[in-house]
Amino acid sequence: MRKESNVFLSITPFKTYYAQEIEQWIRQNGGPAVTIYQVSEILEKVYARAATVESALNVFQKVGLYPCDRNVFRKHDFPHSNTSESPIQQMSPLQRETVKEIDSTPTSSQSVPLVRAADASPVPSLLTQTANSSSRSGSAQVITSFPYRQTIEESLSKKKEAEQKKLCQEKEAERK
Fold first, then answer.
1. According to the UniProt record, where is the region Disordered (predicted)?
2. pLDDT digits over 23-47, tens only?
3. What element of type H or E holds 94?
4. Which residue has the higher pLDDT, 103 or 41?
5. HSE of 30 in the Cβ direction (CA atoms, 13 Å)?
6. Where residue 1 falls among pLDDT bands split at 50, 70, 90?
7. How many Cα atoms occupy the beta-carbon half-sphere of 39 within 13 Å?
8. Which residues contact 28 (CB under 8 A, 6 or more apart)?
9. Distance CA 11, CA 121 (A)
10. Run of H or E including 11
11. Distance in angstroms (rounded) separating the CA atoms of residues 81 and 174
12. Would you say 99 and 91 are in contact if contact means Cβ atoms under 8 Å apart?
């Protein structure tokens, strides 16, 4: 039996507890079938009984995640990718210094240099949006109120006058 299939053995207590709760619910409520409206109530009780630290540890043990074995993976399990084999010339000065420092420090039994993620790539900076100079800040107004409506109508009429004036000037310039 493969390790992955052992995970399904941990469902057995959950199924057992669920069957027990269903039988108990039917006995207490006079025999009607359980509907979708009662399932969540029943599952709450079942989950509280089945989801224990001990059952989680048993699953981790069956799969091989517990106790932790740091030697499970070897170098050949992780083939090099093209992006990680970039030459030092393509690195930034900070990255080159970091690699030199790591290469010069003696390591235990590993000859693989350890590089922090922050050294390998710079921390992205947040771009703050600058306020658009053409936007106007205003205050909250009741749109249908007379003073607000009057100011909007005045600004629209000024715009129309400016446009008409501009058109008249363009026509005069064409005539000349």
1. 77-176
2. 999 999 887 788 888 999 999 999 8
3. helix 93-104
4. 41
5. 0
6. very low
7. 3
8. none
9. 43
10. helix 11-28
11. 68
12. yes
Residue pair 18/43 in contact (Cβ under 8 Å)? The answer is yes
For the residues of 132-172, what is the DSSP string, one character each? PTT--------TTSHHHHHHHHHHHHHHHHHHHHHHHHHHH
Count CA atoms closer than 13 A to 141's CA, side-chain side: 13
- CB atoms inside a 10 Å sphere around CB 82: 6
What is the per-residue burial (b if ≥16 Cβ within 10 Å, else e) of 152-170? eeeeeeeeeeeeeeeeeee
pLDDT at position 13: 84
Instruction: Give the closest residue to 63 by CA, choosing from 122, 9, 140.
Output: 9
Q: Tell me how far apart the alpha carbons of residues 149 and 154 are, in angstroms, rounded to a whole number.
A: 9
Q: Are 143 and 149 in contact (CB under 8 A)?
A: yes
> In which residue are the tokens 């100011």 written?
151
Residues in the chain: 176
Return the structure tokens found at 14: 């959950």
92: helix, strand or coil = coil
Closest by CA to 58, choosing from 19, 14, 18, is 14
Angle between helices 36-50 and 11-28 (to 10 degrees): 130
